[in-house]
Protein 1
Amino acid sequence: MTYRITLIPGDGIGPEVTGATCRILEAAGAPVEWERVVAGAAAAEEQGNPMPDAVLDSIRKNRVGLKGPLATPKGKGYRSANVTLRQKLKLYTGWRPVSSLPGVKTRYEGVDLVVLRENTQGLYSGIEHEVTPGTIVSLKVSSRDAAKRIARWAFDYVCNAGRRRISVCHKKSVLPLADGAFTDAFFRVGQEYPFIEQEAVSLDDVAMGLTHDPSRFDVLLMQNLYGDIISDLCAGLVGGLGVVPGANVGDRIAVFEAVHGTAPDIAGKGVANPLAVLLSGCLMMDYVGERRVAERVRRAANDVLEEGRHITRDLGGQADTATFTDAVIDKL
């Protein structure tokens, strides 16, 4: 069976890292036919919209997408292309697995946790206005239905992934209604999963605990802004945004993506590290049921990292994008 998958190359280094990922997946035998579409800064310039309807329609049709980093032009009134994508397609779960990699030296070893982020509400709802000159109010939206929806996704994920515990993160001491509702919905759904360990942890304790001992946590569930920040902190535990995968998932649609930025300073130089998009592509293969392809690619990438001879500059090596890509393909 061949899967037709929407490909958004992205801006900056996006075309380079997604191109490398497509080459490796093809070499690994991934049965994929790509449907390429344009979004981000390029789409804004060409079509006046960083997230055109044609992109959304393509993903709705194919139900799976792979996305490079997108830039939204500043100061022109455009809304974030990434936020628009998540909200229009109801991709309510931000899924960020974080694991230590062989050959990538950091202060921590054996990190293996998952951050799940509610993608559609919170302060990213985009509801703000100027109440008096110089005074801005931004509304944090938190609904019971959205909280229960992602809580159920989290519990089902833990069951299927063989994990043990979910920690719901909050700031109830400051936001007793909004964060209290999110936490209450989590435990209400959790009553249906009595065999999964469940706890509520303040965001302060999560941040402190991650820097002291990341192994204390298994799956972290949190609201939009918290998840945006904490997921990047967790990436720093294992080497940075260039080595962690990510995805935005709804009930019927999933988009797998680079979690790093467009890196315009190195765009077009052929030196970008494609690992984050490559590992996101592996998540995508898992999602569509091609687990053997995903595991082959992970093993090959891990072998290259462990040897350390063909790694990119951000990881302490001298290899360019093509050299790293060829090395992974050779391992396959």
Protein 2
Amino acid sequence: MNTIAVNSSYLLMCLNMLLCYALLGEQLEGLSMEKKLTGTQLGAFTVGKLIGDGGMGSVYLATHPERSDPLAIKVLLPQYAEDSEFRARFIREGQVLSELSHPNIIPVYFFGEDRGLLYFVMRYVSGKSLYELLLSRRFTPIAAWQILKPVAEALDYAHERSIIHRDIKPANILIEVQRVDGKLHNQVFLADFGLSKVLTWTALTTTGVSVGTPQYMSPEQVMDYPLTPASDVYSLAVVVYEMLLGRLPFYAKKPDQLAFRHIDTPPPAPSALHPEFPKPLEAVLLRALLKEPERRYQRAGDFAQAYAEAARQVGRERCAMQYYVGEPRHIR
């Protein structure tokens, strides 16, 4: 088995820190609820209803006197603004990220600071996340393709501009039903480009821990090795694996144990979980999930193209079938 060579003591230190960081995030999750901003002003924006809350901050609806389109404003927890270097980097990176313009990337219109709070303003998407959809529905290979293709296109666009997302996961993939030429159409958006790079930097400089979600992190991200587009490809492959099978490649009770799985444990072959799972699609998934980034698809578009070619080889009838197995029994 080929794995990334590691220094065991360094790895243990990193993984212990990862666990501490995850626990800290859980403790902070409710803090932003204590101070509601609804009805106040942040810069030129009026903060509206709270629509989301988490460990990094809160998301509200927002309005601007010169705009009629729906807006959302994400306000980071106050401690982020207390670090002057982080604050400067937040604004600097925000200026770059706000220039991203792609139909499958939620546009970020403005980054700013007001009264000790860092925030950014983006397009409001009135739809569900892939995370929510996975709780209530099962995906065929055809349905998974309808998510994979636009996300891969968004990633290629960002990667061509030297931007790595670093946190591809179902919660950061949003689907909005739109009407186009009189017909309903599912528009897929990739979210949170605005936080990935700058939060990674501040975590590494203050705790030595990579930002990301352990279930979806590439081996090199766990190890704090340099990231490449292939790192996002790995995370996207975990998402596709989950869509097709209704379960993740790896499970563990603790974040550090889960991180070890990404580094040294091969993912279960889909056909070992569901005997009828198409072998061509399995080969594509397992290549995208290889431990060594140089052996994976180097572009998200290459992954999507290989998936499409495998699907054509399998045929429409089998691609319209479900291969759901669900989470392992001990996890349920």
Protein 3
Amino acid sequence: MVRFPDGERPAPTLEDVARRAGVSRATVSRVVNGATLVAPDTVKSVQAAISDLDYRPNRAARALVTRRTGVVAVVVPEANERVFNDPFFPQAYHGALQGFGNSDVQVVLAIAQPGDPADRMLRYLDSGHVDGAIVLSHHGPALATALARMAIPVVFVGDPETPGLPFVDLDQVDASRQATELLIQRGHRRVATITGPLDMAAGRRRLQGFRDALTAAGLEPGPIEVGDFTQASGRAAAARILASGADFDAIFVANDLMATGALYTFGEAGLRVPDDVAVIGFDNAALAEQSSPGLTTMTNPADELCRVAAEMLIKTLAGVPVTSVILPSHPVLRGSV
């Protein structure tokens, strides 16, 4: 008689499940690997046997059969400090987890520093460690262009401006146009802006919407400064605008972190918001509600964007064609306008 130490028994095998369910080992394998050509009653029998025996598939063996790892990556080409300080990224990652919530897929976070050679991340994505990827906050075309040549399924959050790559994005131009129009409707005529990085489509398109709204109203743009979506850059850009001596009575800031930085600078300079200068941000982050005064802002639902991207990636992995998705934005009114 075989004795097992401390009363332990070996983990159940595929053969044990097959005997319990009264089917062949090959049938159990097909059920475990998600094959569709198995009778529903047989699937139920196999699943019951798996549950009864507490069977756990061998991931390594399963990967050899299915050529799948059961892992997808959320790729963020940003500095660690920004990933963990900007509320957009935790919300986006949560959205990816929600999108894969009804599957056995593990979602890992891969941070690639801006300026790193694209081939470093490409080697990781092409190494066989992941089945696909969601890419957030990309700078420039290099990564997207290289991914377009690879076989790995990928979905971008934000337009990669690369033909053939699916993405989900906000209507960036319309959202920033709405933000600027709101300031114009409130009677402001010298509207400044702090843009995001201009090597990102979001940064350029939010600037375009700002310009379009002013042009349609017959107004010249006020001071324009470039930030990098961090609070510190918002403070510095607002300080440069004040130091220039240029006249302005309102400002559209391309994200809420920079906008709260600008609020701080204006407060230090003795300006009252919104009496002396009206401020509108972008993202509807939690800090917009917590600032004083509360920050009027545009919605940019990071969790929804990444959840939709995850659903698109699931379809892509299943061989189902997908088309890119554009989501709308609307203003959230608070005390800064």
